Amino acid sequence: MEKELVLVGGGHAHMMALENISRFVEKGVNVTVIGPSFYHYYSGMGPGMLGGTYSPDDIRFSTRKVVESQDGTFVKDRVVKIDPVEKKVFCRSGDSFDYDLLSFNAGSYVPLKLLKDGSENPACKSSACETPDNVYPVKPIEKLMEAAEKLKVLFRQRTVHVSVVGGGPSSAEIAGNVWQLAKQIKGHQPEIHIFAGKKFMTKFPENVRLRMVKALADKEIRIDETGYVRAVEPDRITLESGRQISTDFIFMASGVKPSTIFQASGLPVGPDNGLLVNSYLQSVQYPEIFGGGDCISFKDRPLDKVGVYAVRQNPVLLHNLLASVEGSTLKPFDPGPDYLLIFNAGGGTGVLKKQWLVFSGKPAFWIKDYIDRKFMNKFQAFEKSL
Description:
Layout: E1 3-8, H1 15-19, H2 21-26, E2 29-35, E3 39-41, H3 46-51, E4 60-62, H4 63-68, E5 73-76, E6 79-83, E7 88-91, E8 96-98, E9 101-104, E10 108-109, E11 135-137, H5 142-157, E12 161-165, H6 169-184, E13 191-195, H7 206-217, E14 222-224, E15 229-233, E16 236-239, E17 244-246, E18 249-252, E19 257-258, H8 261-265, E20 275-277, E21 289-291, E22 296-298, H9 307-326, E23 341-346, E24 349-354, E25 357-361, H10 362-385
Parallel strand pairs: 1-2, 1-9, 2-5, 9-21, 11-18, 12-13, 12-18, 13-14, 20-22
Antiparallel strand pairs: 3-4, 6-7, 7-8, 10-19, 15-16, 16-17, 23-24, 24-25
C-alpha cells in the first residue's frame, strides 16, 4: 500500500526534501506539497528586493515546478488545522488530505494586534488577513513587492512619512531599503521613522547595535526610543504615552510568531506556540509529524528565528523523512556553532557579526550579497534543470 507524505510549506527547511521528491516517489510514496504561493521567496533577500537591489525573480524559485516535475502534487492553499488522530490535514479552501507522514515548514507571521480595526483575530493570522492599503507586515515577503510599487508612485509625487513599527533588525533593514528605493528612482526623499520601543536592537551586542544606529543616522532615518506603540491607524501612530505621530505609509516589523496551526490542532507546542519537536525535529507526541524553520519550538533549547537554523535543518529533515519511510535510524539535529549574522542596512551597506568579529559598511553587504546569491542560485539551477 502506498504511503502519503504531505509537506506543508516550501521554505528553507524543506528545500532539500523538495529537491529529492523523486527519491520518495521511487519508494512508492505519494508526495503532496501544500503552500500559499506557487513560489518560495528567500526572506533574507526580501529587504533588498524592496530597495531595488534584487528583482522578484532573483529571490525566488518555483515550488510548483520543482514538485510537479518530480511527479509530486502541488496544492496552492493554506493549511489551517490537522487531526493528528485521523491523520488528516485541513485547508482554508475546505479540502482535506490524508497523510502517513507529515512535515511542517509553515513559517511565521507578524502579529497585527496593534491595528485599531481589530485585525488580530483567528481569521487574520498566518499573514492571511486584509490590512489597510498603506499598512504592510514584513511577512509574507511577496507583499514587499506590492509595497515597493506603491512607494515608487508616492516618492515621485511628494515627500511622504514612512513609519516602521518594531525595534529589531528587520525594522532597520526595511527602513534602510525604503531610503535606497527613493534614491534609486530619484524621487522625493521620504521621512523615515522607526518606532523601536524603549531601545533599538536591544537583543544584540552594543558594538552591533551602534553600527546599525550609525548606518541609519547617515541616511537621516530617525529612531524613536521613547516608548512602545499602543495603536496603529492608516494615518497615525499612537504611543503608549498618548503621543500621536502622523504618517503616510506603515511597515509592521514588531516580531514574528509561529504559525497558529499547531495550537488550533491541539498539538504539543512550546512557549512561543510553535510545534514542539525533539532532537529529531519530530513532534514530541506524534512521531509521524516533523517540522523545521520558524514554525517549530526546539525542545532541547530555544532557537532564534533566523534562516540559518532552517538551512541547517534541511539535511536532517530529508534524512529523517526518508528514514521514516524506510524504517531506518533517525538522525538528531545539532544547531551547530555561532552563526554569521549580516544585516542589509540599505545603500549597499551592511553590518556583519561573527563571534568576536564585527564590522560595517560596503564590504559587509558585499559578503551578504555573495552568500545570498550563491544560496539562491543553487536552487534556481536545480529548478532550471528539471
